[in-house]
Amino acid sequence: MSFGVRMRTTIEPTGPWRRPARSLGTGGTWLLVGLMLASSMASVRADEPPAEVVVRPEPAPGPLDNPLKGWCPYTDAGPIRQPYSMVFLYAPWKELEPEEGRYAFEQWERRAWAAPEAQGKHVVLRVYIDYPGRPSGLPGWLKDQGVTLTPYEDHGGGLSPDYDDPRMVAALERLIEAMGRRYNAHPRVAFLQLGLLGFWGEWHTWPRSELYASPQTEQRVIEAYRRAFPDTLLQARYARDFAGEQPWLGFHDDMFPEDTDNGRDWSFLAGLRRSGRTDNWQRAAIGGEMVPHRATAWLGPEYRQTVEMLERGHFTWIGPYCPALGRSQGPEFRERGEALVRRMGYQFRLDEIRHPASVVRDEPLKVVIRGENEGVAPFYYPWQAELALLDESGEPVEWLRLDCDVRSWLPGPFRVEEAVGVQAPAGRYRLALGIIDPWTDRPSIAFANELDRQGGWAVLSALVVESRQVGDRP
């Protein structure tokens, strides 16, 4: 059985002596690796440690649909022409709470989450009250209670509610609490934007600043979200006032890359610098929307600036408008879009894997993994890294949990060194690595290497599990 993998695999004796490493080159077969393992093991005395397998996978372009990064398009804005792993979903408050205290989350999900474009995708959520050009999202029961609405004509017109009305603020806090019960730690929810306040839920009513909420209301909304969503990554539009004091909060720039860092004091990154939040990307995701209908320019003559802004802001995802929705999909446009996705967020490349060629059942297997995060940001959730022993059909016989925290793999090199107990029956296996998505309970993050994948597992090398011999020490 062929590995189907381009890698350099070496089997080295360990102990006080060591011969120069011999490489299998590329495309080594399962049979050849097994024969080398058997030969190497036979040449080592019983009192010597087993030979060591060293694998250096060939690098390759990273995947374009790794989870929780890349393009995050609308589901209702036309064809999506590039790979993506997330979709952006707006929801009006009145649809989620049509009657006071009666929440219709399940009904909304059946409609929005089941769209063909959303199938198999994680979601980013934003709830709005006032979306210019659309009917008001304020629930009718709040209007009936006396919350006032002020008409405006900007951006297509709409009705702006009184955000500081005590009845409004209390109802917002109850809504957020209910959303937390439904969506905190929900395995399909990638990120949740604070939304609710201002035009489009973007925390401003420019140029009608008198219509916007007070800093006190902003603070109460942020505190409500923090209580309701301790396990879900949240994003705010601006790093100002109380939001700018929060080290745990992510942010979204909805005018990327034009206003990301344009030299003016109101630009996105200027606000992060002013509030001391420029390092928040190390623990909370940065996302945002590309300037609508400008993808051709930003991936054309202004591409250099686009790359610079992405790197300067440590962006993990872009949407809902993004180049995946662009009508012009020429070769250069697609190539540049793919390069941006690979640079966004995380991209894990494996450089070297070391482990003994064999292990006695019920004893620890020591594994050392070196790699590099080639992206501009970490992975933000504590998804579990696992090793698996695959049989010849590619099915996992045993999963071996690693204690490493993938969130600590910041841009640059990372290293994992662990010993894990093996309990699989004696035999020959393929050793594989995966990072498990809690939504599917399967490995879903692909590495930037030419590695065979079996059921999502990245196949690394071969491993022999031996039975404990009679008389061996336990």
From TrEMBL:
Q: Which Gene3D superfamilies match?
A: Glycosidases (3.20.20.80)
Query: What's the superkingdom here?
Result: Bacteria
State the name under which the record lists this protein.
DUF4832 domain-containing protein
Q: Which Pfam families match?
A: DUF4832 (PF16116)
Domain DUF4832 as annotated: residue spans: 249-449
